[in-house]
Structure formats: structure tokens, C-alpha cells
Amino acid sequence: LVALGGYGEGYLCAGSDVDLLFLHAGLAEKDLSLFLQRLIYPLWDYGFEVTYRIFTPQEALDFALQDPTFLTALLSARLIYGSRSLFEELTRGFQRLISGRTKEIYLRLKNMREQRLARVGEEIYFLEPHLKDGPGGLRDYQFLLWAGRIVFGLESPEDLVRVGFLTPEEAARLREAVNFLHQVRDTLHHFCQRKVDRLYMEYQPEIARRLGYGADRSGTENFISDLFRAFAVIREAVEDLMDFIEDLYFPQGVHRIPFKLAVSGPAFLREIFQIQAREGRPLSRDLRKYLRGRVFREEELQELSRIFPYLLTERHSLTMLHTLRTTGVLFHLLPEFRKIQGKVQYDLYHLYALDEHLFLTVESLHRLREERPELWREIRDPRVLYFAALVHDIAKGEPHHARAGAERVKTLTGRFGFSPEETEEIVFLVREHLLLFDTALRRDLAEEKVAEEVALRVGTVRRLAALYLLTLADARATGPRALTSWKAELLEELYHKVRKVLEARPGAAVDLAAKRERLLAEVPRRLAESIPLPQLEIYDLSVLKRICALVQTFQEETPDFLVEEIPFREGRAVFVVSGDRPGLLADLCGSFLAAGFRIRRVRAFTWPQGLAVDEFLVEPLSPGADLREWGSLFRKVLRGEEDLEKLISRKTGALLSLGPRIQREPQSDVRVDQESSDFYTLLEIYTPEKPSLLYRIANVITKSGFMIGKALVSEKEDLAVQIFYLQTREGEKLPADEAERLQQKIQNQLKEVAS
């Protein structure tokens, strides 16, 4: 009986598979079957995940040649019970098998590693890391041992010190990192009561607490930072060994930056990273080790600082940034990065630690340079934009991090040779890097004032192009949820509207009178003249014609309501025409929720003769959501045949289970804004997302006697953001005292929903 894999190595966690090899010299099949029944079945009954093979020594060797996974398992083979001579027959044969195939087997191992990392992701600083198969994980440590055994015949990790590959200090760090990962994985298995190897964010606080880091957020962040460091130690050792082996067996295969550059004079750092940024070549193992242990002189760092902004603009700057971090040179160059290395960003959108997010923002700019050449033509000095991208979140975690970061940037640009004018541009980009995104998602872009206010803050077309590129790069580097196609469309629309204002092009303002005249040629006069001014401003002629046709049908046939779905760039827009009444909008919102739809935007318009024409931009919460079901449900609500409150209470629990995972409950915030719109009071609500929230808040507003003109729904990190455009029944902004009372009512409602 032979243990393989992790069991053979002597490393098993609570949920690990037990890999066994039954080695025999030719037993009859019925004897093998009886043996297995007596041993394997009880193990399965006890809950062990057992995988096993039954071979003679020669069969095992033949299979190892065909299956690289089984070959690696044999590298960890350990006799548990039975014939030692039979086991030694296997090990002698295995040694003969690999001795003449060292290069071939190493390349197989390397290929398996590359496939594994491609499957789980190749970045250490991913916020939900795979403890076993991720880069620097336990499988990487096994790769280190396997490669050492195949190439050098090493029997134990200690042999890496004996042959001079690791120093005793490096070996101690490696051993500590591996033990820590085993401890984390075992704790995770116990917590989940099963084998789970990806450390999801909702598990992290509890694992941190069980490992003694404390139950608060800082304890979790410290735990994840230690985990990232352990990954880095293991990955560093693996890559060093791979370089060592490949220099030995494939000296012409990889053109690494050689160690001799380290003795080329004060400019050696500049030369090393200039080559890497331009060509993407890795540093040799000796050079990496030298840099990790080096105490740099001031003039050496100054030489690198002077050229660093230029290096960020080179195509392989991401490779350079990773090397700067792993060798520690980055922290001499930009000490500010010590505080943010591996810093966790707990929300629904960020997939990477903060420093990696900044690196990926730089990389995203390179892609945008190829994809959006018309924007890049506006960029006078790419150094400024790339440097701003690298430092835009330098103060993340502090209150008002964009403003705090802008102040910090003022103190460091001088080290990198930026002029006062260039520093001013970098400060602007860092300070305003949230402006376009926040505006696009929280303001109605149909209002001219929105674009005018952004234009006032931006100032020039060149600044606008740089800010837009940074916004796109930042969102892409955050994760796929941060820049959906809907959000990208809104950003693009805002960019073009602000650009028109900055260029002061003739016809930038909408000529509403001319637009109404064109509509008169297409629809009856009574309809064209009934369209409210804001609605005329927002929609193009094709949409206005369809709205008028819907209204005409409603007036002629007088149904309970009429619906038409009109495709928009932003998504699926549902137009509803019905008789207006208090609470109508809240009932519409509640009906959409009960039918399984999430509302992204609401625009409400009142026509003459008490007609309501409302637009809902919706998306299904589940694949089964059907607008016909919504229509049937809303008809019952209008006729008093369905109690919407009870219906929502029944369905909300199921809808809640569809939401994304978050590991903490942020605080809610309610704000009143009387300045951003000339016609409306804005009520801004930031709160953890609940499916029933829009309906309940609309109910409070309606019962308070106010009209909802528009409502925009988006997200900010792990908060739902709802912006309501409100007026009194007389069409005026809310008086300050009434707005304050409404604010308090909403806060009370949020507390009730949370409880």
C-alpha cells in the first residue's frame, strides 16, 4: 500500500483527497476486489475522498509515461504497509525511467504548471486566491520539490540548501510560508466542513479570526497581506529554480537580462529596467537575488527616478512594475507603495489588491492606446497620464482619497523630474479621477447643466481626453462588474457632451422648438404639443414618435395601461402609459421587483389630462423574468386584486439570494442636493442593496406628497446608489425644511429595511 501526492509528502488538510496506489505482483482479480472492499469502502463510509490505482510495478511505470499527473504523484510515493521489496522495485524502475528523460519530464511539469495558472489566474494579488493551484500556492511548492528531484535528485526541501540553491535564511522563509498556507487551508476546510481551496471574501474574516488575527476589518486585512507575502515567497523560489534549471539545460532558450549589468556603474538600475520595459525580458536569477539584497546609493535611485515616467509609457511596463515590486526596488523608488502593497479593497468590484490594481491601470492605458487612437491624439505628454494612473489611488483607504491623493502627489512628482505645469496636470487627474464615472452614473445626462458643470471643472479638451482615458483604464483594472456595457455607454455619452461644451460648437444646445416642428410633421398636433419639455429634450424623434403612438392608442382605447419596449444603447427600456394617480410610480417599481426585474433608471413625465408616461430601464434578476408576467401582475395591482406589500414580502427573500456576495454591511447615507439641477431637488441615497429598496423609498416620497421626476440607480463599490429628482406638486423644488423632513423619513425607512 503506497501513499501518493500530498499524502505521500505527509501534508494533508481536513478535506484533502487521499491518493493511494495498491501495488501487487500479480494477484487474482477476486483477491484484489475483496481487499479493496475491506479497505476502501470503510474509508468512503467515514467520509474520506479516496482516489486509488491498482498496478504491478511495471504497469505503474507504463502508465506514468502516458499520464504526467500520475508521474508527479509517483515523485511523492511513500510506502505505508506491505512488501518493501515490491516498493523498491517500483522506485528503482521509476529512477531509471526519469534518468534518461530529465529535460522531457521537466518540460511536461512546466507545461502542467502553465496550464494550471492559466486556468485559475496568474496573479498572486487576486483577492479570492486559490490556496492550492494559484501562483505561489501549495501546488507551486510541490512543483519546486518535483523539479528538484527530477533534475538534481533531491530527496527533501533541506537538500535545496545543501546544494547551494537556497541560503538557510531563504529556506526558513520558504518553510514558514508553506506551513502558513497549510494552516490556512486546513482552517478553511474545517470552517466549510468540506474541501474548499479558494478563499472567498466572505470566508476571510472568520478564517482570520480563527488564526488569531482578530475579528475586525484590520485583522482580516493583515491576514490577507500575510497570505500574499507567503505566496510571493513560494513563487519567488519556484521561479528562481526554473531559471536555474533552464540556464543549465536550455541556455539559448531565454534571453534574460544578465548579472553583469549590476556592475556597470551608477546608471545600472536605469539600464536594467529600461531594457525590461522596452523588451519584456526577465532578469536573471542572480540579478534578481542581487537586487533583493542590495542597499542602493542615492545617485543610483536618482538615475532610475529620472527615467521612470518614460519607462511607464513603454509596452512592457507591467513586467517592469512586477519586477520592481518582487525585487523591492519599487519601495526605494516610491516608498509610498510600502503602505499599499497587498492592501485589500473589500467591495463588489475590485478583484485585486490595491498595488496590483494600480499596475493594471497602467497596463489598461497601453491597451486603450491601441483601441482609442482618436483620444490619444489629444495627449501631449503620455508620461503625465501614465504616472497619474500609477498613483491615482495612492491614498485609498483615507477619507476623500482622491483629494488626499492629490495632495500627496504634489510632494513626490519632483523626484521624477516633472515640471510645475506637469505636476499640476497630474494633481488634476488624481483629484478628479472619479468625476466622470460618478457624474455619468448619478446625474441625468439629458440636463445641459450636467455637462456644463463637468466642463467647468475640466477646463480643456486635452484634460477631458486624459481624464476619460484614466477613467476607462481605472474601471477596466477594477474588474468586469465595474465597467458594464451600460456604464461604458453612459461614460461615452458624457464625454461627447462635455467635449461639445468645451468646443462651444454651434448647435450643441438642443433647439427644442425646431425639434417640435419636425415632430409636428409626423404626429398629430395635439400630441406633439402635449409632450413635456424635459421629455422632448431627452429623446430623439424616432422614440418620441413611438411614445406619441402609444399615447394615442391609450386615449382611443382607454385600457388600464399600455406598454411598449424600446431598445436603447443602455439596455431594455419599458415605456408605460397610464392614468396618473398618487403612488403610481411606487406601484410600478414594486411590480417590476415582484416580477423579477431590477430597475436601473426611471424617468417619469406627466402629460395633460392626468396622463403618466414613464420609462423604466430594467434588467432581469433571474433568467425566468418575463415582461408579460409583470404586465399581468401590474394589472391586478391597479385593480386592487393583488396586495403588493404581501407579494413583495413573499418574493424578496428569493431575490436577495440572487445578489452578489459581500462580506460586510456598509453604512447608509442620505443627502439632499439643491444645487445640481435648476428644476429639481436631488435626493441621493447610498445604502447596501436590497431588492425592495427602490419601491419602499418611492412609497415614502409619494406619501410625503412629492413628485418623482426621475430616478437613477447605480452602484458605488459595495453600495446601491439611488438618485431621485423631486418636485412639489406645483412643479417647484422642495423647500429646505420639507427636504430635511423627507431626508429623516428616508433614513428611518433604511433602518427598517436593514432590520
From TrEMBL:
In terms of SUPFAM superfamilies, this protein maps to:
ACT-like (SSF55021), HD-domain/PDEase-like (SSF109604), Nucleotidyltransferase (SSF81301), Nucleotidyltransferase substrate binding subunit/domain (SSF81593)
Which GO terms of the molecular function aspect are on file? Answer: [protein-PII] uridylyltransferase activity; hydrolase activity
Which Gene3D superfamilies is this protein grouped with?
cca-adding enzyme, domain 2 (1.10.3090.10), Nucleotidyltransferases domain 2 (1.20.120.330)
Q: Is the keyword Cell inner membrane assigned to this protein? A: no
Alphabetical keyword list: Hydrolase, Magnesium, Multifunctional enzyme, Nucleotidyltransferase, Repeat, Transferase
SMART domains tied to this protein: HDc
What is the protein's species of origin?
A: Thermosulfurimonas dismutans
CDD domains linked: ACT_UUR-ACR-like, HDc
Report domain HD positions: 354-467
What is this protein called in UniProt? HD domain-containing protein
* Domain ACT residue range list: 573-653, 682-755
Q: Which InterPro entries match?
A: ACT-like_dom_sf, ACT_dom, HD/PDEase_dom, HD_domain, NT_sf, PII_UdlTrfase/GS_AdlTrfase, UTase/UR
Lineage here is: Bacteria, Pseudomonadati, Thermodesulfobacteriota, Thermodesulfobacteria, Thermodesulfobacteriales
- Source organism superkingdom: Bacteria
